Amino acid sequence: MSATCSHCERPLVRVAVPSEIREFAPESAAVAGYCPRCLRTYPLEDDEESETEAALDAGSAEVPSAIPTGEGGVALVLAVGLLDSLATNRPAIQSLVEYAERAGADVFLTLDRLAADETVEPYVDLARRRRQLESILE
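^ thats the sequence. predicted structure below, dont judge the formating
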């Protein structure tokens, strides 16, 4: 997999996926990438780069400020990557949201901030998905 988004052609932000949620990463990859523009997620090769040791590649200027650092941010990014089909991905999304919240991330606040961020053009309607997500998680 290339280290750029196939839709936006932006460099991907690399994230190390914690083993507890790896089954929900694209292709169950240990390292995933997400596009800072459209928020699509991709599997990446696990190489020897030291950035893969960090939960988020926080050194990247492209990282949207709304995305929390640490494992909660990784879980949240993976959940956003699955929002294109809430019905199909519901169990995975629920698990990722719960993991993100346990790790200290405020999922709904982050979705609101991402929806309002003018530098982000999500591939899904985050405001609409947020409302749907709230209803399925109640």
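The chain has a mean pLDDT of 88.
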